[in-house]
Amino acid sequence: MTHLVSDVSTMATRSLRLVSRDVDAMITAVVLPVIILLMFVLVFGGAVDIGTDYINYVTPGVILLAAGFGAANTALAVESDMSSGMVDRLRSMPMTAWTVLSGHVVASLVKNLATTAIVFGVSMALGFRPEASVLEWLAAVGMILLFVGWITWLAALVGVLVRSPDAAGGFSFFVMFLPYVSSAFVPVDTLPSWLRGFAEHQPVTPVIETVRNLLSGGVAATADPTGVAMLAVGWCLGLGLLFAVAAGLAFRARH
Amino acid sequence: MTAIVTAEGLHKSFARRGSASPPVLDGLDLELEEGQVLALLGPNGAGKTTTVRILATLLRPDAGRATVAGFDVVRDARRVREVISLTGQQVAVDDKQSGAENLTMMGRLAHLPRRVVRDRVAELLTAFDLSDAAHRQVGTWSGGMRRRLDLAAGLLTRPRVMFLDEPTTGLDPRSRQALWDVVRDVVDEGTSVFLTTQYLEEADRLAQRVALVDGGRIVADGTPAQLKSQVGEAGVELTFATLSDVGRVAPALGVATVDGMRVRVPTDGSVGHVRAVLAVVEATGVAPEHWEVRVPSLDDVFLALTGHVGKESPARAAGVAA
User: Fold this and answer.
1) Which residue on chain B is closest to A4 by alpha carbon?
2) Residue B15, by phi and psi: left (phi above 0), alpha (psi -120 to 50) or beta?
3) Could you give the ipTM of this predicted complex?
4) How far is B245 from B307, CA to CA, in rounded Å?
């Protein structure tokens, strides 16, 4: 057990180091979310009328979109480890080799925490005025991290299963699509009914709603904020557990 | 002497149901004596890497049994992992970490105490002549340096058995030489080495024992000298235009063997001996059409021992047109 903790922390340190030295990944992680935020606020913002400042509405969505991009890089990093000799070397050592996956996930959480802070910062400079207590802030960030957690475990699973960097890169398409068909950028009741069914019942929507509720200073936008929050946490923990176990099993089965 | 690695009757097939591809390993037996180097020599596809992966606990055999340091590689895989290190065909270090960072990470993962890791990393960087580049990212290093770092990463724990899967493939001659020196040092410190290679020369330089693998089984096994004596030595081969030319030159060369227009004289390959042979030929006043020094290659070994030519093994003949 003590070894497990130290192995994960060693592997997470490694992943963070690799990410921080990868210029492309750094640009994706930092610049892209900011550009997306600017685009939504400055380009689309004027045209979208939802009865409140669009920036207040859209900021949580941009953060989750950024989390998706961050997770997509995890798929690439895992694929690279699987196809290089690294995993073979780790598997021939007296350690639990799948901690290489946990390391990537922990690194993704840390990285996304930084991205989240940057997006919040830029957003506030543009006029985002959240009203939240410290506790509500912590809860909102916790919610975001839970979301990052499950989507990164999914990315890790994809990284273990695919056989080429191109295929791993394809995962970013999926994570880009998911937040768009949710209440992240537009209220779901503006969607056609067949799409609305999906949007209302996919995990991104309750997570977005929960973050919005927490940051809106008690003026909940949804009827049952506690219920929505429970649903969001349930989705994230359930999917996180599912994909973590699946990634671990797939890791063992491969080779 | 005791065997530190044993394999008996290893079978492995990657055939999917319904396909008729032959097994990769088909009853492979071998033994590595403690403190020695065993070279598993064979062409691509002979089963070398599969053997290493089974012995290093990465792959289960379909049948047969293998032990490392007395531990079964399937049932006691964890114990085996505590005494081995694996350096695979691909270099397993991170390009975006420095040499020191790569080694420190491996030391931490081997659960060595921090202080031990620090000392051992410094020691290995010096021993492998990597100290100057230690804090540069490995992506900027040469192939030979990366290979040495890769070996060093496997030595942090002072393993009892080191598995090296084609360690010098793709290296230039100088880096190859440097790597051989490193392997000899490792053996001097008491580590037994299990090496796979496509190069007869490499097996010759490093190993006390060579096992020739073909089609998933050992087809010959012995010291390098024994193996080479089955193949024949290096020779100066001269080809003449007419049989009467051959008739005039061959008697002058004494120990020569004649095969049609071709005359072959055994040689140790030294400049002095080759020059002496050529001087005798020149003195007869007959000019050969072509001559070359032929060293036994993996192809020759295969031809001699299996009756067919190993695929993808480079022939090594230094040819000179006369």
Assistant:
1) B109
2) beta
3) 0.85
4) 32
d(CA A103, CA A92): 18
Q: What is the pLDDT of residue B308?
A: 61
% helix, strand, coil for chain B, step of 5 = 40, 25, 35
Distance from CA of residue B218 to its chain's centroid?
15
Q: Which residue carries 């790569």 as its tokens?
A: B102
Chain B residues touching residue A21 (CB < 8 angstroms): 96, 137
Provide long-range contacts, Cβ within 8 A and 24+ apart, for A227-230: A229/A143
Segment B176-203, tens digit of pLDDT: 888 899 899 999 999 999 999 988 888 8
Choose the mutation target among A84, A87, A88, A95 for the interface with B, i.e. most B CBs under 10 Å.
Answer: A88
Record: contact B94-A7, CB cut-off 8 A: no
- Best CA proximity match to B288, nearest among B231, B249, B230: B249
Q: What is the C-alpha to C-alpha distance for residues B198 and B312, in angstroms, rounded to an integer?
A: 9
For residues A82 and A104, what is the distance between their CA atoms, to the nearest angstrom?
13
List, in sequence order, every residue forming a beta bridge with B258; answer none if it has no partner.
B263
Mean pLDDT for the stretch of residues B54-62: 94
Hey, of B105, B109, B156, which one would you mutate to test binding to chain A, going by the most A CBs within 10 A of its CB? B109
Closest A-chain CA to B78: A94
The C-alpha atoms of residue A210 and residue A231 are separated, in whole angstroms, by: 9
Give per-residue pLDDT as tens, B124-178.
999 889 999 999 999 999 988 999 999 999 989 899 999 999 998 888 888 888 8
Amino acid at position B130, single letter: L
Does the global pTM surpass 0.95?
Answer: no
- Encoding tokens for residue A7? 């192995």
Element (H, E) at A173: helix A165-180
Sign of CA dihedral B283, B288, B290, B291: negative
Q: Note the pLDDT tens digit of each residue in B5-53.
A: 999 999 999 877 666 678 899 999 999 999 999 999 988 888 999 999 9
- What is the residue-wise DSSP string for B68-123? ETTEETTTTHHHHHHHEEEE-SS--S-TTSBHHHHHHHHHHHTT--HHHHHHHHHH
Distance CA A200, CA A68 (A): 19
* Alpha carbon of A229: minimum distance to chain B alpha carbons (Å): 39
DSSP state of B284: T
pLDDT class of B311 with cuts at 50, 70, 90: very low
For B61, counting Cβ atoms within 10 Å of its Cβ (0-12 exposed, 13-18 middle, 19+ buried), the class is buried
